[in-house]
Design goal:
This protein is an alpha+beta fold. It has helices at 16-23, 76-92, 113-129, 183-192, 202-212, 220-226, 239-250, 258-265, 269-275, 280-285; strands at 33-35, 43-44, 52-59, 97-107, 136-144, 149-157, 174-178, 231-235, 253-256, 291-296, 306-313, 322-325, 328-329. Helix 3 links the parallel strand 4 (97-107) and strand 5 (136-144).
């Protein structure tokens, strides 16, 4: 091992084996991992007989910046937390529970070893802190590249339940959300602003935290499946954009109640006032809160954590399925990976 002081070590000062030896002890081990990191492939239990699987990528300067305009410095812990959170949320959106993650980390040789250790800590902290005790990192890959990039594949179980799809909403259903709307979008706006980080109140700093370390409501997905949800998805690209995807899959219209949406906008008003912005576009188009948008049959009690924000209506005239606000067409704002 290099004689370079520990606080100055970069990944090029260590062999791959030495770097992995620093990562593995920081990862939790769940019972579903029959054979974890160390072999060519992991062995994962699938007692349900079916497996949910999804994959997501974060790339430096596309999905996060190492240094933001307001002075915030993204840590390895932040990137690890977010990588876990957004993947756990995808399994949650199907009504399932995550059982394992496989992680690929690409990084420049100059990346500090402390950053990589913090990344591993962030993965574990999110898994435990967000409430996925049966999940852990089963393995992965380390690679060299010009910029940081993280790809995570997640595996999950339905626990004997049927998956909740995007395509099951029917006219008359109630539209509901779990988790927050717009907080991560407001946090992104603060990060991109010239308002110094150290001048933010704890309330505003909390919005930054929602962007850097999302809080998906992992309890809500299985509860929705058990409670009769007819359709559901993860809100990662904004309420209107993701709502339009659910509407298209179900061939219906989602009509949102402006009064219910205003409730989600109120906590964002201090940030909007500071930046000279309107809070409602964050609610409608700000992604990465990783809450859930779901539909339920009318008349049933919504599962814990869900609140009603609208109704499902039949398509009776062109232009077909889509989203509305109080019956009026809404622009489908939100995040697009190739347009934004």
């Amino acid at each position: 091992m290099s004689a370079v002081p520990a606080e100055q070590l970069t990944v090029q000062d260590l062999s791959e084996s030495e770097l992995l030896a620093r990562i593995f002890p920081r990862l939790n081990r769940s019972p579903g991992i029959l054979l974890g990191p160390g072999d060519d492939a992991a062995l994962i239990a699938a007692p349900d007989g079916r497996t949910l699987i999804s994959i997501d990528t974060q790339t430096q300067d596309q999905d996060f910046r190492l240094e933001w305009s307001n002075g915030y410095r993204t840590t390895g812990f932040d990137v690890g937390w977010k990588a876990a959170a957004q993947n756990l949320s995808d399994i949650n959106a199907m009504g399932g529970s995550a059982t394992s993650l496989v992680v690929s980390l690409t990084m420049p040789p100059s990346t500090p070893v402390e950053w990589v250790e913090a990344f591993a800590d962030g993965l574990t902290a999110a898994i435990i802190g967000l409430g996925a005790p049966d999940c852990s990192v089963a393995g992965g890959d380390l690679g060299r590249g010009r910029e940081l990039a993280v790809t995570v594949a997640v595996v999950g179980t339905l626990g004997g339940m049927a998956p909740v799809l995007r395509s099951g909403a029917t006219p008359g259903d109630v539209v509901a959300v779990a988790g927050t709307l717009g907080r991560a979008g407001a946090g992104w706006a603060l990060l991109e602003s010239n308002v110094p980080l150290d001048s933010l109140t704890p309330e505003l700093r909390g919005l930054v935290d929602n962007q850097c370390r999302p809080q998906p409501p992992l309890e809500a997905g299985p509860l929705a499946a058990q409670g009769g949800a007819t359709a559901m998805l993860d809100i990662s690209d904004g309420l209107l954009r993701d709502g339009s995807r659910l509407a298209a899959a179900s061939h219906v219209i989602l009509d949102f109640d402006p009064g219910a949406l205003k409730i989600h906008a109120l906590p964002l008003e201090p940030a909007a006032a500071l930046l000279g912005r309107d809070a409602m576009p964050w609610v409608l188009g700000g992604g990465e809160d990783h809450g859930l948008l779901a539909t339920f049959p009318a008349g049933i009690q919504l599962p814990r954590g869900f609140t009603a924000i609208g109704s499902v209506q039949a398509v009776v005239e062109p232009p077909g399925s889509g989203v509305r606000i109080a019956g009026q067409a809404a622009d489908t704002v939100g995040w697009d990976h190739f347009a934004d």
